[in-house]
Write a structure and sequence with these properties.
Elements lengths: L7 H18 L3 E5 L6 E5 L8 E6 L3 E8 L2 E5 L5 E5 L3 E2 L3 E4 L3 E5 L8 E6 L3 E7 L4 E5 L5 E5 L3 E2 L2
Antiparallel strand pairs: 1-4, 1-7, 2-3, 4-5, 5-6, 8-11, 8-14, 9-10, 11-12, 12-13
Length: 156
């Protein structure tokens, strides 16, 4: 512990400051499921093909990498479920999953901007860039792109 945090009255303040700075340094590691073959990958209960298969996860689904081991990653999906996936089935490319009934993708990061398209719940959209606060620029696999509110998707 730092000598600056040894005074009793300041202990709580230092603890909170350390916790906040450590927490903000830990950015979420999101990836896209993109197996070399097939439209899906298998999620296991342990980091081994000898583990029990738990689920099948579709190509382009975003996941958050929680733990990485040799050749394997423990990932969290939009529903909060945790399982292991072969690291080779994950791509650097980022996708987002629509979490509302219909996400509205607009020409610019403005709620009054013209609507480009709507994406239904569960659809994966490629993340092109994070936009102004609360917005993200995305692209649909058909090529259309625009901005949507960050609270309409999971994976940021």
């Amino acid at each position: 512990m730092s000598k600056h945090c040894t005074v009793r009255g300041a202990f709580l303040v230092c603890t909170l400051a350390f916790g906040l700075s450590a927490g903000s340094a830990l950015a979420a590691d999101f990836r896209s499921v993109e197996p070399a073959e097939g439209p899906a990958a298998i999620l296991y209960d342990s980091p081994s093909k000898k583990g029990v298969p738990q689920f099948i996860i579709r190509r382009y689904t975003p996941v958050e990498v929680v733990v990485s081991l040799e050749g394997w990653a423990k990932v969290r999906d939009a529903g909060g479920g945790l399982a292991w996936i072969e690291r080779a089935a994950l791509a650097e490319r980022r996708t987002l999953q629509v979490t509302v009934e219909r996400a509205e993708v607009r020409q610019s990061a403005d709620a009054a901007a013209p609507l480009v398209f709507q994406a239904e719940k569960g659809v994966a959209l490629e993340l092109l860039e994070t936009g102004p606060a609360g917005w993200a620029k995305v692209k649909h696999r058909d090529g259309q792109s625009g901005y949507l509110r960050a609270n309409q998707v999971w994976g940021l």
